[in-house]
User: What shape does this take?
Amino acid sequence: MALVMSAFITTFLGVGPAMALGAALANQGNTSVLPECVQACSHLASIFGPDAYSLGNANVTLWDAKQQATHSACWVQPSSTEDVSTILGVIINTSCRFAVKGGGHARDPDDSVSAGGVTIDMQKMRSVEVPPDQKTAKVGSGHVLLSLYEALEKYNLTTLGGRVADVGLGGYILGGGFSHLSPKYGLAMDNVFEYELVLPNATVAIVNQESHPDLYFALRGGMNNFGIVTHFTMRVVRQGQMLGGVRAYTADKRDAILKQAYELTTSWKNDTNMAFFYSYGYHQERDDFTLAVNQEYYLPVLSPAPFKQLNRIPFEHSTVRLDQTSRLSIESASATPPGGRNLFATVTYSPSVDLDRQIQDIMAQEIQSLKKAPGFYPNLVIQPLYEAAIRAGKERGGNAAVALLTVLWGNAEDDERMNAFAQEWVERSTATTKDAGKHHPWLYINYASKAQDPFLSYGEANLQRLRRIQMEVDPQGVFTSDGLCRGYFKL
Ligand SMILES: Cc1cc2nc3c(=O)[nH]c(=O)nc-3n(C[C@H](O)[C@H](O)[C@H](O)COP(=O)(O)OP(=O)(O)OC[C@H]3O[C@@H](n4cnc5c(N)ncnc54)[C@H](O)[C@@H]3O)c2cc1C
Assistant: This one.
């Protein structure tokens, strides 16, 4: 064991003696290693051997360049719930900072890659257990959506996954989870029946409505504030091929698309086989906007009734087809490759053609001075908050449209003005939806910017309840903003 430990320290430091650690590591990449984590990493290496390593982000998918450039003292890849419990025990004993990485699609340092501490990378935890009734599956929290879809497709089953292959199940489902099945069943989090959770004191809890009603409530949207989830037991449903794909349109089709989006959100809401979202994006190379509509239909029908009018609008190109969910998710991933600098921001409002247009126009006005920024690509995605999701989570309120502003750019020097742009868009769009009497308070945590406070949007009573539950399960504050796991959104 001593040998493994010393080999680890040597690799970890790039130097021999452990005494020189702090200084040698002080400037590794753009993050200093926290001294208390040197001890934690040595201990983890002695237990986990090559599954605890210091080479940074090798063989790991991280979507955003800001997280890719974040260096941890070490990484560790647990294979079981017991491993996660052991790791958390070591981390707490050494008071080392840490982050938990699912699919790595968060956008800021410390969200899921620890800045100078330990990154717990869940990618080895990809089990799938399907009981004989095939109504639920117990799945490891380290799945990305593609690995989960592929595993379930062997049984002709699927689940409430999202659209993009390499997004992690962990972050997606702990925040909410918009799926092509959401019109039928609600958000993904509304379809988790049981969680296996490593609590902030490193013990393991099986959390369901009966065993821990408070924690069960808290985990549905509570993100990384209550411990580390190792397994989800969630709904699965039968699925063969479905309709999916995207159709792209030139800017002159905007009025027609806006009208169809409104019709799909309101008049067709009772056809719960249908889901869709659409986007309005600026393209630097053509100095113009384009629109794209993603069609989804649970059944293998090529032109189902809800999309008939939409399909009459002439398009530039289309990938709409019948296919497996897994393959559709690979297509979506190819449209959102990793590597750029990104931010998300969101507003929610009652469905309205005028408001869709106005918040798109706000984006168009606010980008004027940014158009030449290298790699700049702002895109506004709008999708319904489905009634099934509203029924399942009453706190989310009435019928709504959820807008997600995504901004992609290339250079770190532009970070500040990109953040300012997103904030300006949020403020003006929020004011516009309020003026129209159609503002909806809910902010989807997985679409929110760091300047927004999605937990506040859950409502005062829910927020107080979440904070009380956190005090009970985490009296030391390990998962709080002053604790050891500080990234993403804190209560
Ligand atoms: C290209 C792209 C496509 C997307 N498509 C969709 C979509 O179709 N529908 C939708 O609803 N959302 C979508 N999102 C948003 C997505 O759900 C969130 O970004 C989500 O948080 C990503 O999860 P992750 O595991 O990949 O990220 P990570 O960065 O690994 O994790 C995000 C947060 O969750 C925490 N976390 C992860 N796993 C665990 C765990 N097991 N226990 C405790 N905490 C954990 C992390 O610590 C981190 O704070 C998309 C995002 C991107 C970038």
Summary: Residues 266 and 351 are 8 Å apart (CA to CA). Residues 1-29 have pLDDT under 50 and may be disordered. Residues 415-435 form the longest helix (21 residues). The domain at 33-121 is CATH 3.30.43.10 (Uridine Diphospho-n-acetylenolpyruvylglucosamine Reductase; domain 2).
